[in-house]
């Protein structure tokens, strides 16, 4: 029997909820609850690659960097190492919780976490306009000092008056360096956890040596690239809403359960989806379909098992009657 291959991107709320402080007990409980919803995909015969975000976690690592330097004169690590640290820690947690979930359901599968370096173009336009906020909040004086001392760039925090946060570029992912290994392992039936936090951003110099950049790659765009690169059939983004909504939060709000490529692109281009929330996820889904994927799905993790939930994006409508 030919098994289908799915890439499942776990959103930040899969590990940490907004009202939580981030203890390991909270994260392990949330992770377990999320992974329970993937069991039915395994039972239906899917091979799985799991990707994940790292926003709160890598932010905490950066703040531990700052505290260690200030209090104990510990040399701080660069952003690429911090992303790698988060991949290791989160990957380990997902792997351990997934082993326990599979043990509960009497499913025998190997699971492995894979560090992932993702290449970007060092001349990407994103490097001219850093926009991704990371790390702790600073006052203006401290932000100016760090700008002079370390060359960091800062922008005002939209949530805190008079506060500033460091910003870094968010370039477009080009290639996942170990995609062939990932493909081989998942096609052999192993569950692979990889591309955490969008991957560790790197580039290849003129001699093809791997070099690093201070940047953060969008997790969903890297997940879509990985899904296309390894020939996945389906791409799932698990978030905190059960559907895509047109005009979300407005009186004209409308659930969009089925979409084809052209209609989704139209909605995106006219600003239907929020740039700070749903629009990047939509772009990732469209990129996967554009590169030959069969179906993208955006839904809440707890609704994944119920196929009456979730917004499905395909190249063409499966049934012309569902077209808007």
TrEMBL record:
GO MF annotation, one: carbamate kinase activity
Domain Aspartate/glutamate/uridylate kinase: 4-299
Any GO BP: L-arginine deiminase pathway
Protein name: Carbamate kinase
Family (UniProt): Belongs to the carbamate kinase family.
One cellular-component annotation, GO: cytosol
Keyword list, A-Z: Kinase, Transferase
Gene3D superfamilies the UniProt entry points to: Acetylglutamate kinase-like (3.40.1160.10)
CDD domains referenced in this protein's UniProt entry, alphabetically: AAK_CK
NCBIfam families: PRK12352.1 (NF009007)
